[in-house]
Amino acid sequence: MTTHLKIGRLDADELAKKLTTPLYVYDARRVEENYLTINSAIFYEPKQIHYAIMCNNRLQILKVLLNLGADIQVNSVKEYRLVKSIGSSNAKISVTTTNISTDDLSFYAENQAQINFDSIEEISCYGQLIKQSSTVINHTIGIRISVPMEITDQSATNQPHPTKARVGINSKQFDLVKEAAKKYNLKINGIHGYIASNLIDLVPFIKLGSYLVECAKKFPDLEYINFGTGFGIDFDWLAYGQMVTPLMRSISTFFGRPIHLKIEPGRSLVGDAGILLTRVTNIKDMGNWTQVGVDAGFGVFARPYIYGWQKGQGGYHPVVVANKIDQPPKGLYTICGNSTLQGDFIAEDRLLPEIEIGDLIAILNAGAYGAVMLSGFPGMRRAGEVLIYDDTIEVISETER
Ligand SMILES: Cc1ncc(COP(=O)(O)O)c(C=O)c1O
Predict the structure, then answer these.
(1) Sequence-distant (≥ 6) Cβ neighbours of residue 64 within 8 angstroms
(2) Which residue ranges does the chain devote to CATH 2.40.37.10?
(3) Which of 136, 199, 218, 339 is the most exposed place for a label (fewest CB within 10 A)?
């Protein structure tokens, strides 16, 4: 009898047989653990941990985090509505996005949402809207600050373009931002800055922290600094807490009042809580490599295709053979999706136990930017999603048959 992968207290293979594959499985306890780890490691108060729901917006997951006291970051009116629909107040929601339309700005204004603005033009548009409105009472705004690459030494300062960083307002424009805010009687009460996703190295966060704290001093009405995100799976939260606390204390001392610390983690909260289960449908001898075909591909799990599946690339995910978890490695296998796309690779040359048709592959760290990026292209069945609480299964959606 071989050992099977367990998710919560459930056997992954039995789960996959019962609910069919491809299937995203989320472990609620892991989400809880991740939140509690971050919350206790950052011992500075006041603070708010805004879960970035763009990485996994399933209500069941949201509720796990909200029950623990998490706050939320939204990227759109649609996400804002979703979070409001389950009872979150504006104080718990950070609207952080770019290029907001006038209609959306008007919606946020009428709902008194707290926005981190990405441009002077947006601020002016918002200012005009609230000037014409008799119902908008929130006159506080946050601003997104463009973090220069030189500051963090990170080519990954969320700047996929080689020369153009498109997010945030340049520090050279701070006077203009203040003028625009003053013109419309708006109070800049927060600043936001962030670096790229899935980083483990603390150094860029230290540099970002110092940079934002210096920027903060230029805004006399400041109430919060939002350090955004970039936190990878297995991030050293204890070290982060040790680093960010003195920074926040120094800025609070500077202003003579407690300044709120905010962060917007997504992946680090739910990434490793999700596993994509997919069945082996074919094994193809390619001469000098072995292709293992599975019943999920680009349309179900786009990350390897988009970000690259090789070690060190953004779409690299550990994989295990879920029904042979205790078996010794037998050879190198390349897991490929079930589409017609040449590039539909999921994992390349992985050392795994002997794989046979019908085995169950578990793609790990699939809880963030997995199911939300599911397109079904080209013509694929959609994966189901379930949340496991120890030994109970909450079905989020069923696998399309
Ligand atoms: C403004 C903002 N906040 C939060 C996040 C969440 O990022 P992560 O999942 O890397 O924590 C993102 C991701 O791009 C973002 O753009």
Answers:
(1) 28, 31, 32, 387
(2) 6-27+270-397
(3) 218
Q: What would the mean pLDDT of 317-334 be, rounded to a whole number? A: 97
Q: Which region among 43-52, 129-138, 287-296 has the lowest average model confidence (pLDDT)?
A: 129-138
Which residue is closest in CA terms to ligand 1's atom 1?
96
Write down the mean pLDDT value for the chain: 95
Ligand 1 binding residues, C-beta < 6 A: 52, 55, 73, 96, 194, 197, 228-231, 264-268, 368
Q: Report yes or no: 171 and 232 within 8 Å, Cβ to Cβ.
A: no
Residue nearest (by alpha carbon) to ligand 1 atom 16: 97
- Homologous superfamily (CATH) of 89-265 is Alanine racemase (3.20.20.10)
In terms of Cβ atoms closer than 10 Å to its own Cβ (0-12, 13-18, 19+), residue 6 is middle
The residue whose CB lies within 8 Å of the most ligand 1 atoms, and thus the one to mutate among 95, 99, 197, is 197
Average pLDDT (257-278) is 98
The pLDDT of residue 155: 54
Ligand 1 centroid vs 228 CA: distance in angstroms? Answer: 7
Q: Look at ligand 1, atom 10, and give the residue with the nearest C-alpha.
A: 197
Residue environment code for 107-126, b if the CB has 16+ CB neighbours within 10 A, otherwise e: bbbebebbbbbbbbebbbbb
Tell me the three state secondary structure of residue 117.
Answer: strand
Q: Please report, rounded to a whole number, the percentage of residues in the chain having pLDDT higher than 70.
A: 98
Homologous superfamily of domain range 6-27+270-397? Lyase, Ornithine Decarboxylase; Chain A, domain 1 (2.40.37.10)
Q: How far apart are CA 72 and CA 113, in angstroms?
A: 12
